[in-house]
Structures are given as C-alpha cells and as structure tokens.
Amino acid sequence: MTQEITLTTGIYDLIKDLIRRKKVTLQEEERLIAQLKNAKQVVRASLPLDVVTVDAKVTVKNLINNQEEVYTFVAPARAKRRNNTESIVGSMGLALVGCKTGDVVKWHFGEEEKQFEITNVERIA
C-alpha cells in the first residue's frame, strides 16, 4: 500500500516533470507515480508545518541502525554540499517529500532498502 503524502502544487509538478524527463530510476519512477496518484495537493500557505517540503530541516531516525540524521532540503538550484543542503528531488528528498512527522518511510537507495522515521520537521524559510 502506498503512503498518502501532501505536496504543494509546485513540488507535485516538479516530480511529474522528473518522471516525464526520465530523471529518476525505474524503481523510483514506479514508487513516485503511485504516490502522486494518492497525493493531496495544497497551496504552500495551506501545507501543514510538519510536512517535508522545500526549505525544511528534517530529522529522521534510521530504523535499521538507530542513528539520527538531519537533512536540510532546498530547491534543486540552491542545493550545495558545502552548505549542507540537499535537493528536494535528490534521493533522500524524493523519499521523504510530502511525508510528515511520525511517518515511517521505506525507500530503495540503489540496491539497498532503508527505513526511516521522521522525528522532526522544521521550516527554515
């Protein structure tokens, strides 16, 4: 069963464009298409504060090794390793975008499946 996610219209369109231009793996494409079918679209002002989106600092707990990791997601053009920011449409961004605090997310990263629990979402802009 696919998890229901909440996306802004802009992020929804961005993900659709990635799929259309074949910028994701086949496995990611299948998962994203299924998620988009069940996604709730809202305008940015109506997006709940605990939902992963652009300009959000997200803390996740890796349920396989129990380690906490923090990601700061930004628009693709603003993502820079030296600033410790990640594109919302990078592998981790696509795995978490639209999910909310408390959600458990399973996602394939290459050949490896990882499982995360979102423990905190904080807007940075």
Automatic annotation (TrEMBL):
Signal peptide: none
GO molecular function: translation elongation factor activity
Coiled coil: 19-46
InterPro entries per the UniProt record, alphabetical: GreA/GreB_C_sf, Tscrpt_elong_fac_GreA/B_C, Tscrpt_elong_fac_GreA/B_fam
Residue ranges constituting the Transcription elongation factor GreA/GreB C-terminal domain according to the UniProt record: 49-122
Keyword field contains Coiled coil: yes
Swiss-Prot/TrEMBL keywords: Coiled coil, Elongation factor, Protein biosynthesis
Pfam family, one: GreA_GreB
Protein name (Swiss-Prot/TrEMBL): GreA/GreB family elongation factor
Species, as recorded: Flavobacterium ardleyense
